[in-house]
């Protein structure tokens, strides 16, 4: 039995591209979170398609996104994915392995917090 929808929320992503379809700016808004056209330099969006049993994804970054920022962005994203996986599944043992890998990644990328 499913719960009836009581409310809908809209998240908007606006991407400004150049003549070569390369992102130059990214802004996002989320009315429920009181976010209005906040700037972003990169985004990773993953959606689960239940019909095809596959992940649909959009990965974008602007020309302003530095390699150093990208390393930190991926590290933080991997850590939050571990948190989300634990929350969704309760699989503590594998989540600890994921977090261990995240620290290895940070060490290899030389982005370990001082």
UniProtKB/TrEMBL annotation:
Domain of life of the native organism: Bacteria
Pfam families: GldC-like
Family annotation (NCBIfam families): GldC
Listed name of the protein: Gliding motility protein GldC
Source organism (scientific name): Wandonia haliotis
């Amino acid at each position: 039995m499913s719960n009836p929808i009581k409310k809908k929320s809209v998240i908007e992503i606006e991407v400004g591209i150049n003549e070569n379809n390369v992102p130059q700016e990214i802004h996002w808004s989320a009315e429920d979170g009181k976010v209005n056209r906040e700037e972003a330099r990169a985004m990773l969006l993953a959606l689960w398609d239940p019909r095809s049993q596959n992940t649909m994804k959009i990965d974008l970054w602007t020309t302003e996104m530095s390699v150093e920022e990208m390393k930190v962005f991926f590290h933080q994203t991997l850590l939050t994915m571990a948190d989300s996986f634990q929350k969704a599944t309760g699989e503590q043992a594998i989540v600890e392995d994921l977090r261990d890998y995240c620290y290895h990644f940070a060490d290899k990328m030389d982005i370990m917090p001082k």
